[in-house]
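This week, think about what follows.
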Amino acid sequence: MGLILKERIKDDVKFGLWEITEDYDTLRSDLKLDQEDITTVENFKNHRRKLEWLSVRILLKRMLGKDSKIVYGPERKPYLHNNLYNISIPHSKNFTAILISKKRRVGLDLEFMTSKILRIADKFLRPEELENIEKDQELYHLYLHWCAKEALYKICDKVDINFVTNLSIEPFKPKVKGLISGTVNNSYMNEKFVLDYFTLKNYSIVWCYK
């Protein structure tokens, strides 16, 4: 399948989505990697991890029109080596996604939805958030909350954030696509964000920029 979505969301904010259906050799042949990156991908013991790693770089190439090197900071936050873009990169099962912007902070998450989230809902939701979950769409509603908090976590550089005490999501009714209001309140900020979301092929996808 490869690239299934590439769009400019606002000004220089770009979103891309890739479905991994290719084998390793097909993905690898489409990239020009330096020796450091070749060593990195070849050292992964998990084959799925290799495919994820390659799909991220191919998707980025499709979005920017050239091969680009990704490096990681102390908190495993990704950066482009030339620092021209802020970037957020999630992957889950067969989907890889990227949100990039030159001028804005970005946060993006996607998750393949399974029932396992039911067992951990109280670990990332406040009591009042749990009370507002729509029972007839429980799984999807929970995943939207999780993805929203992950996106906020990423846009705030993954520093001093507890999902329950520092992140809050205002009540909303889940739709195929829509908006979510969320707040980050920690030692660094008290800031409100508007997040976009949609669902596709049993994945929930949420992003924000500011």
